[in-house]
Hints:
The chain is an alpha+beta fold. The protein has 15 helices and 17 strands.
Amino acid sequence: MKKKLICIISLILITMMLITGCGSAGGSNVTTGSSGTPTQSETDAVAKRTDLNLGAIGEPKTLDPTQISDLVVFYVTHQIYNHLIDNRTDGNLVPGVAESWTYSDDGTEITFKLRQGVKFHNGDTMTADDVVYSFETAMASAFTKGVTAVMDSVRKVDDNTFVLKLKHSYGPIEYCVASSQIPILNKKAHEADPEGYARLPIGTGPYKFVEWKSGDKIILTAFEDYYKGAPAIKDVTFKIITDGNTAVVALENGEIDIIDTPPKTDRQNLIDNPNIAYYETEIASTVFLAINHNSELFSNKKLREAVSYAIDKESLIIGAVEGIGTALETPMAKSTFGWPEDFKNKQYDVDKAKQLLAEAGYPNGLNIVLKTNEIATYFKPTEVIQDQLRQIGINASISKMERGAFWDDILTKRDYDIVVSAATATYPDADYIYSTFH
C-alpha cells in the first residue's frame, strides 16, 4: 500500500475578496462587483462602451489551466474556455457544453451528451474526441488532483457522447467537472504543440485570444460564433501590473476599469472615492499553517503542538490583512458542506507553547525553515507567524519561493517541515481540502 503523507493543519484566517471599479479614461463610469445591482446610470454607462480593461496583478505563467493552479490564470482563461458544466456565481450548476448527463445505477459512470455545433475559435467543431482528450490531459496533471483524483477514465461513445468513469461514487463530482482546471481543449492544436498552445490558446468560450505581450497585457476579442451568442463587450484587455499599489493608482487614473483584491491599506480610500464603486464579500478561501508529520523534525507531536499554541489568530488577522478576515478552527471554509460548527482547535497560549517546546527536547529553542509562496496573500501572514514563533524560542527563516517551485515542493515532493499555504473551496463541500492532506 502506498504510504500517505499526512499534514496537520492549523488554520489561521479566511481572507476577504475586494473588487473595485472606476470610470475609464474616456469618462464612462463602468462598475462591477461580486455583489450588488448596478444603478441605471451605471448600466447606461456600460452600454456606451464595448471595451473593458482589467488589472491583472502578476503575469500568468501559462494560459493552459490544466498545468497550474493560479487565480490570475483562471481570470483570463475563464473567458477563453468552456466547461461541460457551468458553476454560477450563486453556486448553482447548469449545463455548459454538455446539454445533459445521466448516472449509472451505482453512480460510478456518468454519460454526457454534448451540445452539437459548438465551435472552437479556429472554426473547428467540438466533438467527444476533444472532450476525452481534455479530461485525459487534466487527469495527467499534478496541479489538478483536487478535482480529478476521483476520476478513473474517460471514453468516447460517439461524436456527441462520452462517459466519465469514477473510482467510486462521489457526491461533489459535478462541481469537479465544472472546475476551471478542466477546460475543453482543441485536441488537434494542443496535441500538436502543448507548449505553444499555452501561449496561443484555442477554446470555445465567449472570447478568443488575440495577443500576449509579456510584462504588458493580454488582449481578447469577442467570439462572434459563441454558442450562447456574441458578447456585448467586444474587446477585453488584461493589463499586467506588478503589484497592488500600482494597480490602485492605475484604477484611480482611469487606466483600468476593474481590479480585484487591492491592498488592504487602500481600502478606506477606495470606499471614500466617489468615482469608484467598491464591493466587498467574504470568500471561501483560507490561509493556513501546515506541518509535515512525516518530516524528521515534526514527527515529534509535542513540537507540533507547541507551534499550534504559539499562533495568535486574531493578531495575525490584524497584522497580515488589516483586520479584514475571520479566525477559523479548521482549514475548511465556513461556507462548505460538512464544516464542523462545534469543533474547537488549540487556542493561543504562549506559556503552554514554551512548556511543550521544552518537553519536545528544545528548552533553548530551535531553528527552522518556513516555506511560503512569493505572492502577498501568503507572504504577509508568514512574516507575522515568524514573529509569533520567535516569542516561544523558534527562529524561523523564511524561504520565499517562486509559485511553480513552491507548489512542486508542497504538493508533489512534500519537501517541507512547515509551510504557510492557502486553499480555496473550488466546490462547496468539505472534501475539497482532502488532497491537501493525502
